[in-house]
Specification:
With 212 residues, the protein is mostly helical. The protein is 74% helix and 0% strand.
């Protein structure tokens, strides 16, 4: 968990694979993350405006399941950057939120499922606000959170396939909802871990202030 410059005495945590993130912008992993971000409005347009469901499935599948590509390339090419560490989770979160809104609008998923995921996002936003008030940035991505994100991003195109292709509805629906519910559970577990991390850090900061 990193602090902002105002509290620069706290050392920065190393990036993925133990590499120290740098300030580069024009890297291949960052380019991949930008392309993934462009896939979000493209998916919404295809799914909600022109109702091109097959194309929407392809965009969602490529954008969602390529979640690991930018991180893997960053480690392999030693191109871990601070911008990349922001873009990767941002792209994941936007894919999840955009898909939830679109799926709820067309009744692919029930609103209760969407509400459960959005409630977790609100919990995390509250924790981030507390951390920023104490001069800290967002916590490092936890492997439980990455696993939950992968499950959700894998579930969405399968659920869309079940909703739009009747012949695949039985099998795709079972697989998609299994992935989705496991993803939801782990998403909340990761959220709880982030809250615990934030609480421990705030307590430590207050303890140091009291000792001073």
């Amino acid at each position: 968990m990193s602090r902002r410059p105002a509290r620069a005495e706290q050392p920065q945590a190393p990036g993925a694979g133990g590499q120290q993130p740098d300030d580069r912008v024009l890297t291949l992993p960052n380019l991949i993350s930008f392309v993934r971000l462009l896939g979000v409005p493209l998916f919404l347009y295809l799914f909600l405006v022109v109702r091109a469901d097959v194309a929407a499935i392809v965009v969602l599948a490529v954008g969602g399941t390529s979640d690991w590509v930018d991180g893997w390339i960053a480690r392999r090419l030693r191109q871990v950057s601070r911008l990349g560490e922001l873009l990767d989770p941002l792209a994941d979160r936007l894919y999840i939120l955009a898909t939830l809104v679109a799926f709820t609008a067309r009744e692919v998923v029930p609103w209760q499922f969407t509400a459960a995921l959005l409630a977790r996002e609100l919990l995390l936003l509250g924790s981030l606000a507390v951390l920023r008030r104490h001069g800290y940035g967002p916590p490092p991505v936890h492997y439980v959170g990455k696993t939950a994100t992968f499950l959700l991003l894998a579930a969405f195109p399968v659920l869309l396939l079940a909703a739009t292709v009747p012949a695949a509805a039985a099998i795709a629906g079972a697989v998609g909802w299994a992935l989705a519910w496991w993803g939801l559970v782990l998403y909340w577990v990761a959220g709880a871990l982030y809250v615990i991390q934030a609480r421990q850090l705030v307590r430590a900061v207050r303890g140091q202030g009291a000792a001073a």
